[in-house]
Amino acid sequence: MNRKFVFIVFFFFFFTFQVVLADLKIGFYKTTCPRAESIIFGVVRRRFTTDKSITAALLRMHFHDCFVRGCDASILIDSKDEKQSEKDAGANLTVRGFELIDEAKQALEEECPLMVSCADIITLATRDAVALAGGLHYTVPTGRLDGLQSNVGDVNLPGPSVSVSDDLQLFTSKGMNLDEMVTLLGAHTVGFAHCNFFQNRLSSPDDGSMDPALRNQLKRNCTSSNDNPTAFLDQKTAFVFDNQFYKQIKLRRGILQIDQNIADDESTAAIVSRFASNPVTFQRSFANSMIKMGNLVANEGEVRQNCRVFN
């Protein structure tokens, strides 16, 4: 399908881009930009070679984008003096990987101008990063459009200490179920968190929910400097996309409160055990859940020339 920028209007050297409708399908760019997916993969592979943590970064970016206004790349918009974008929301201040999206977009603009959306770049780059880290290489439909809004006040994402029921409420509001919620939290198998996100678990009285050896180790690490150190959320295989995360939280080695909560809560414990005992089941469930999350799209939008600004 060709992007229908038919009525591009030129007037005194200014132009506007027609708003179009989203049309997700497998192989959307087959005729309009055949090398789109391979170009994005090349950018991700080069970065992954020198920075294995990019998988976690892109997974977080993708989730934080899709769970606000749908997967519309609104998280990429830079704030202006008079208006703050989603980037400036507290939950997004530590989101990273924007320069990788810029690199992919620049390469795609040289190959096929105004054809591949920034939203599709995020989705495909995340898929590729997961595969490079050992996850399944799943097929995703493309054809997403870049949103026309990005407001700091629209960001309402679950915090690291949220309860299972509150977390589920957000997921169900997006059409996702309990199994998919536990599945997507499995992205923490390649994640890490700054101490301030779990410091409350170390400073409060020991409630027995964290392995004592891990608790002592984290206490030492988090008080060793004033730079807000980080800790891997999977203490075993931090850069490998596998099911070790679930095995760890069953041993009370969850770093974030929500991670430990899904292992302990009676509504989710069986799902955690299933994924901990069967890596193939987790990988397939994760791929399916990512595809479903990626289908949360805005109905209309544009294809940005620069991912950081609206056309």
UniProtKB/TrEMBL annotation:
It is an enzyme of class 1 (oxidoreductase). It holds the Pfam family peroxidase. Its cofactor is heme b; Ca(2+). It comes from the Eukaryota. Ca(2+) 1 binds at residues 65, 68, 70, 72, 74, 86. SUPFAM superfamilies: Heme-dependent peroxidases (SSF48113). Substrate binds at residue 158. GO terms for molecular function: heme binding; lactoperoxidase activity; metal ion binding. It catalyses: 2 a phenolic donor + H2O2 = 2 a phenolic radical donor + 2 H2O. Residues 23-311 form the Plant heme peroxidase family profile domain. Residues 1-22 form the signal peptide. The keyword Heme applies. InterPro entries: Haem_peroxidase, Haem_peroxidase_sf, Peroxidase_pln, Peroxidases_AS, Peroxidases_heam-ligand_BS, Secretory_peroxidase. The active site is at 64 (proton acceptor). Disulfide bonds join 33-112, 66-71, 118-307, 195-222. GO terms for cellular component: extracellular region. It is found in: Secreted. Belongs to the peroxidase family. Ascorbate peroxidase subfamily. Belongs to the peroxidase family. Classical plant (class III) peroxidase subfamily. This is Peroxidase. It comes from Acer saccharum.
